[in-house]
Amino acid sequence: MSHIAKVLHTGKTHTTGGRDCGASRSSDGRLDIRLSSLGSARIGANPEQLLAAGWSASFESAIAFVACKRKIALPAEMAIDAEVDLNVADDDDYFLSTRLNISLPGIDRDTAHALVNEANKICPYSKATRGNIKVAINLV
After folding, report:
1. What is the per-residue pLDDT across 43-95, written as a single tens digit (0 to 9) for each?
2. Contact at 8 Å (CB) between 42 and 34?
3. Cα(47)–Cα(120) distance, rounded to whole angstroms?
4. How far apart, in whole angstroms, are the C-alpha atoms of residue 71 and residue 68?
5. Which of 13, 29, 89, 137 is the most buried (most CB within 10 A)?
6. Distance set, CA 90 to CA 19, 87, 94, 95, 133 (Å)
7. What is the SS3 assignment for 65-123?
8. Which of 55, 73, 49 is nearest to 129 (CA)?
9. β-sheet bridge partners, residue 23
């Protein structure tokens, strides 16, 4: 791991109640959400949705960074559909698996693969999860 030269941002949240009937609020008040468990009628997001949103946003920014370095214009329709699965094994061991389905319309397949592969190397979420969970990255 590289030496930390400068912290660019620290996201701070205060969470109470957990996934079943909790709430989470950021220190700056920009994020203020209810949490709900899977299949609950309660309005709220679950942690898997929050990870999917954060990771896909970060990954899309990583693609844009790589494309800018290579002087490649990205389509306005670029999108990532992220899926985060909460799994349970026979021994009640919980684990995650994910899929990032990336759409880069108008970019030739080889260039799109190169952008995605390089973005995967620099995306902080990809780095944090690498080797820890099963990840599939698909160009669609």
Report:
1. 999 999 999 999 999 999 999 999 999 999 999 999 999 999 999 999 999 99
2. yes
3. 22
4. 5
5. 137
6. 22, 10, 10, 12, 17
7. HHHHHCCCCCCCCCEEEEEEEEEECCCCCEEEEEEEEEECCCCCHHHHHHHHHHHHHHC
8. 55
9. 16, 34
